[in-house]
Amino acid sequence: MELLEAIEKRHSVRSYEDREIAPAVRDELSAFIQQCNQESGLHMQLVLNEPKAFGSFKAHYGTFSGVKNYIAVIGNKSASLEERCGYYGEKVVLKAQQLGLNTCWTAMTYSKIKSAFQIDPGEKLCLVIAVGYGKNQGTGHKIKEPAAVARSEKPWPDWFSKGVQAALLAPTAMNQQKFTFILEENTVSLKAGIGFYTKVDLGIVKYHFEIGAGENNFHWTPSRHS
Q1: Per-residue pLDDT tens digits for 122-146
Q2: 172 Cβ partners below 8 Å, 6+ apart?
Q3: SS3 content of the chain, % helix, strand, coil (to 5)
């Protein structure tokens, strides 16, 4: 499955089967998480067979069921942390989709089980991503029109249109889609709106845009996840 196909097929899933992640899939996902950690400086961790985080009232309020595996998205406290968590967390999400797994980003409807993962001094848990074999494949979310989230003084080149379309398929907190792409020549800037977890969303949509547009077609200004 190519990344664009993974973007199109991946939807948030909140109900999971009582199945352990296959060893080969688990190992490949774990290796990819470590690769992302090395690139980003994050401390993401795959937590397996731990039902307590999603066994509370908060999780039931968020309509989660059967979640026993999740990715703890952790990193050093900094101004760029949330955006890096979104960017690299979404890399892991799409990798999981390619491996036949389902996922769901969650920021508040879970309980923090301190014994399940390691938070080093100076680090914080940003959010978690439920992962496993879903009871369904989820459903698509309502998306805005491209013109509502992007602008340019000149007609949009094809690569820009494709990047915006891919970004609109990205998961965002409460489906806010509060972001704006601005095109000047072949340089693209991305701005976050006001709302919950919009900086995390910025990282997620940035990765989607790169996949849709093709990284060789444009430059970011400024670089936000470095």
Answers
A1: 999 999 999 999 999 999 889 999 9
A2: 178, 179, 197, 198, 201, 204, 205
A3: 40, 20, 40
Task: For residue 18, name the pLDDT band (cuts at 50, 70, 90).
Answer: very high
**Measured between alpha carbons, how far is 188 from 190 in angstroms, rounded to an integer?**
7
| Nearby residues of 67 by Cβ (< 8 Å), 6 or more positions away | 14, 16, 51, 53, 54, 59, 130, 132
Domain 3-132 fold is: NADH Oxidase (3.40.109)
Q: Tokens 């999740």 map to which residue?
A: 70
CB neighbourhood size of 26 (10 A)? 17
Q: Where exactly does CATH 3.40.109.10 map onto the chain?
A: 3-132
pLDDT in the model for residue 225: 43
Nearest CA-CA partner of 106 in 43, 149, 63, 169: 63
| CATH 3.40.109.30 is held by the domain 146-219 | yes
Looking only at the bridges linking them, the beta strands covering 102-106 and 70-76 are unpaired
Taking the whole predicted model, whether its pTM rises above 0.90 is answered as: yes
In angstroms, the CA 130 to CA 127 distance is 10
At 132, give phi and psi (nearest 5°): 160, -160
